Amino acid sequence: xxxxxxxxxxxxxxxxxxxxxxxxxxxxxxxxxxxxxxxxxxxxxxxxxxxxxxxxxxxxxxxxxxxxxxxxxxxxxxxxxxxxxxxxxxxxxxxxxxxxxxxxxxxxxxxxxxxxxxxxxxxxxxxxxxxxxxxxxxxxxxxxxxxxxxxxxxxxxxxxxxxxxxxxxxxxxxxxxxxxxxxxxxxxxxxxxxxxxxxxxxxxxxxxxxxxxxxxxxxxxxxxxxxxxxxxxxxxxxxxxxxxxxxxxxxxxxxxxxxxxxxxxxxxxxxxxxxxxxxxxxxxxxxxxxxxxxxxxxxxxxxxxxxxxxxxxxxxxxxxxxxxxxxxxxxxxxxxxxxxxxxxxxxxxxxxxxxxxxxxxxxxxxxxxxxxxxxxxxxxxxxxxxxxxxxxxxxxxxxxxxxxxxxxxxxxxxxxxxxxxxxxxxxxxxxxxxxxxxxxxxxxxxxxxxxxxxxxxxxxxxxxxxxxxxxxxxxxxxxxxxxxxxxxxxxxxxxxxxxxxxxxxxxxxxxxxxxxxxxxxxxxxxxxxxxxxxxxxxxxxxxxxxxxxxxxxxxxxxxxxxxxxxxxxxxxxxxxxxxxxxxxxxxxxxxxxxxxxxxxxxxxxxxxxxxxxxxxxxxxxxxx
Length: 624
Hints:
The strands form four sheets. Strands 13, 14, 15, 16, 17, 18, 19 and 20 form an eight-stranded mixed beta sheet that branches. This protein has a seven-stranded mixed beta sheet with strand order 4-5-6-7-8-10-12, sandwiched between helices. Strands 1-2-3 form a three-stranded mixed beta sheet, covered by helices on one side. The longest helix is centred in the C-terminal third of the chain and has 19 residues, at 559-577. α6 packs parallel to α7 (254-263), α15 (444-459) packs parallel to α17 (484-497) and α19 runs antiparallel to α20 (559-577). The radius of gyration is 32 Å and the shape is elongated. The protein is an alpha/beta fold and 624 residues long. The chain contains 22 helices and 20 strands.
């Protein structure tokens, strides 16, 4: 018997096939296994008598010899087909991935879900079991999607594996294994997750009818299981030359975003971008709750540079159009930038450690640990001068468990810090003004960033810690054009509607509507705590004196007298807005010694962790 197998098959695979045939074919025989177009066999087996799997010694086919049965040629043929599918698209495209520093999608899954640590350009598919899945991969769905369209079987060869050479598999460019999209379930960072991953070697990761069906099924199953979803995106968009059957259909690509919307707030959706995601493909990362882009590798845009030039005449490259800097600094569409594929995985592993599997579960607790720096230094971090800047992260690191502050969108709206942390092992969402950036004034981008973060924390039952030190919302014609009122509305709405436990700390300045947006006393916090440096007022002393006493001060001719009077007015105003006055009038709940702040917050979050809040019975609010 002669058998011809794929061009890139190994001698070990040829040996396995010969052995399988020997075990399952009765009588004397000879098996010759040829690799690709070779004239000489790579393996030859000659055997006599009955095979190990055939009945012998007069036993019937149903006798004890069944115990010796092994895999049949039929099973081996299936394994060959699976191995061929797992090789992905044409070899030339796999080679290009290595040049770009990118992993082939199957090796990427090994990085995410396996025990190995693949490096771009160093993974040789021939050196591993081509049918084996990574150890953390629970299962894959739809390996054989579009199989009939590109893979033709031959009684002698079972297909050539590469789609070239003998005409059985079509041309190399026609390879569509798994229709370019891999979906399934896996174990990741101690969690069971659903996943999808584009195969960029198959028509640039583009999406067509059967891949779309797999994507939709994965999303719909996530709604049933209540488990997180990982989108490992590397797609050029819809396959334009095959759009019939998947573009505008009820169960077509448009249903992706309907399903994203249904999953939103139900299970965490996390997207990592590994390449250019254009047009429809770009909506998955923006619909996801959290998006990571990989530097020098990923981009997303509503249209490609070529299309932009056709429509607008603008000439621009893809990185300038929609690279990581664009979306982490300006649009706010991405949360983090990873330096490489390994870093991207590490970031996502950290991120999901703060989140529950779904909205019905509590965020995962860990063993608490001491802060990185002593809470005893908190009062020294906060300057006595109300207008002097400082880095709020220096305070945060003295309040939260060591090395647990995981900041999101650090370059977008930097006047507000948002991120997850733990206090005594309990996950919390931190919303903190950043006086080191534009005095901590709230600009439109910062307000939108905070609103979205608060909304996500509330969706997944992560308690909120507000650290307030702001002169309020920024004023001026520029921010009005940028929608400061609309953005401020969103932040105040998210804070108002949140039903998770909230703690507000007035660190220093709490001026104007800033105290509203930062969950002050009127916004249903479980507590409003003041530090001795705190002040709550409609506006700061200088602005207030100028607004109320400008004319009277202008009437004073003597400069020294005018300066003395201004000083008196400032001191009187400060006494009126001082946190002690607010505590005396029970505007706030307590003034806490700064060294005790962490302990106080830990106690309050623990006490209120089971609180349930009701909001008016309605369909939904009208603020988006």
